[in-house]
Structure formats: structure tokens, C-alpha cells
User: Fold Ice-binding protein-3 from Chlamydomonas sp. CCMP681.
Amino acid sequence: MSATTTTMKWVTPLLAALLVASLTQTSMAAIVVCKMDAIDGQILTGACTVGVSGAVISLVGPGAGPQLLNDSSISYTLDVNARSTLFECASEDDLLIIDSSQYSSQTLNNCDPPLLELRGCSNAILSHNTFTSITRSTAQPACTISKYGPCVAIVGAASQVADWSFSSLDNTFTSSGCASIAATSGRLGGALALVRADSGGAMSAFIQKSTFTSTQCDFGGAIHSANVSLTLQSSTFTSSLAVDGGAVNFIAASPLAVPTQTLLVDRSTFTAPTAVTTGGAIQVNGGLLTIKDSTFTNGAALNGKCVWVDICQTYTETEIVRNTWTGCATPEGPPISWCKAHDGNQWTSCGMEGPRYCY
Ligand SMILES: *[C@@H]1O[C@H](CO)[C@@H](O)[C@H](O)[C@H]1NC(C)=O
Ligand SMILES: *[C@@H]1O[C@H](CO)[C@@H](O)[C@H](O)[C@H]1NC(C)=O
Assistant:
């Protein structure tokens, strides 16, 4: 598909509102749409367009250093591995969209950056992309090990003073992540690492209609979320693995340090998620939790086979509604918490677990 087709598809109708919102902020705001392909072990070819009728700009590198995308404040750097791209946004008004990209059969070493890293990019959108058979090897050469899994990292920057968001729409991650897992490696997110980092504004992430199959990493087999308000909607997680947070590792800072971070799980499905230590499907460390209309099946972990809640205040009974829990905690077997029928939950097994002093 040509970049022009991609742009047109986006302009109508999904992005019309965003276009208007973004363009009315300042006349300088740019919308950049990029399509990136690194298929069957081949190196990356990427191209971006700036604006609705902008010329197509092919990515150059590696070794060319940061390249500014014309008429925007967005620059990119193609790593020496010729596969990984770092996008950096200097303005909160520019909008970066990575659409219809394909990455397949790529092996990164532990020091390579992830295939895609977006730094300081407010309201970026990742849509209709596929990541298949992407691994990070266990070999640890004498270099600085990447903090992230091999696929995508979204990282905040100090230049982001306003609240900002990231959206993953209709993306597919299959057989991707860290080749083996260990807490000491500390790598985040087999598919997505979401990190507010230094941004002043609150970060929220919206994951919709995205599919994660056989993803794994040290923390957050599919998604690691740090200091972010995270919404998972109509998304599917199958056979994910991590030390903590088999599918999703949600870490929230104290509301005194960062505005209250929420985790909303809505109409999503978790099948056969495993954590070595805590939270087979989801570990929730801080923040406020809502889980509704979701299905959890056959979780495994030392603590919390399906959902583990670290901090008592995170849990409100009426926020856990209409879910189906099968093969989660054993009823009455410690540590069991919040294990009773309520609010339309179907409990063939208990779903929510946490420290005993919470209940
Ligand atoms: C982008 O800017 C560079 C440097 O000003 C120029 O040489 C190039 O032709 C521009 N490309 C496009 C697609 O406008
Ligand atoms: C989360 O926020 C806390 C408090 O500001 C901070 O200490 C911590 O480094 C942040 N974590 C990340 C991964 O940015």
C-alpha cells in the first residue's frame, strides 16, 4: 500500500477529529504518518509523509544520525542494526502515526534498542501494525542492556508538559519478546513498554483491538506500564509469560508523586497467562483498578494466578463486574481475597488475589 493511500485511509473518518483538534492547536502542528517494514529478517525500509499531501520521505541510515522529518519537529534515528528506529518529538503539537507496518523474523541482541521507540511524542498512534517472531537474544555482550523488550517502547520526555496519550489500535504481536526471562535482566514489555519517565503531563495509554499471542519478557509479558493510566479494550492476550505480570505489569507511582493512575480492563480476554512470581495475567501495583466484561482462563503464578493486587486501596468490589474467571485461584486456598460472587462475575474459581491483610 502506498503511503498516500495510508494517509487517505486515516484522514477519513477516524482521524478527522484528531486532524481538526491537532491543527487548531497551532498552525505549525504537523501530522506525520510512517510505514515501516522489516520483513523476514530483512533490514528496515521506512517512509513517512508529513501532512495530508506531503511528499514521501524515505528513512535514511543507519549511521546518518538524527534526521528531521521536513516541516515537523519529529526526527528519527535508524540504529546501526538497520532495524531499530528512534522517533523523537520536540513539539507536543505534532502527531506521529505508525500505520500498516510489518516486522517479522527479527532477532535483536540485548543491547539493541527496540524496533520502535517513540520518545516525547504526545498522542502518537500505532495502528494496523504486525510484529511476528521478534526476539531479543539472551546473549549479553559487554554493552548496556536495553531496558525494553524487542518491539515497541513509548517513553515520555521533559518537553511534554501537557497531559498526553498513546494509542495502540488493531495491532498484532505474535511470538515476540525476550527469548528467556529473568528478573535480573529487568527488560520491560514483550510487546509494549509504556513509560511516563520525565514527562510533566500525565500519560495515558489506550490499547484497543490489539492481539498479543505468545509474548514474553522479564516484566510484562505483553505490556509493561510505568506511571501511566492504562485502558485495555477489546484486546486479547494468549499464552503470555513474565516474571511478574504475565500479560500486563501495571506499576503506578504514589498519587502524591503522579496524578492517580488507573487501570481499566474492558471486554478483554486473557488465556493461559503465566507469571513466574506474581500476577499470572496482571500484576497491579498501586493505582485504581476496574475490570469489566473480561474473561480470564487458566492463569498460573506463585502469587495471584490471574489478577494480583499489591496494594489494598487499589481494589473496590463494585469496580470488578461481569467477568468470567476459570482456572484462577483455588477457592479457600490461601492467599485468597475478595473471593465471592458479586456484580455479575462468574466465579468457577476466584479471580482477584492480594495480600491477606487486605481482607
Ligand atoms: C526535506 O528537506 C531537505 C533539506 O532542506 C530537502 O533537501 C529535501 O528535498 C526535503 N524533502 C522533501 C520530501 O520535502
Ligand atoms: C514513576 O514515578 C515515580 C515518582 O515520581 C518515580 O520515582 C519513578 O522513577 C517513576 N518510574 C518510571 C519508570 O518513570
Remarks:
- Residues 1-17, 19-26 have pLDDT under 50 and may be disordered.
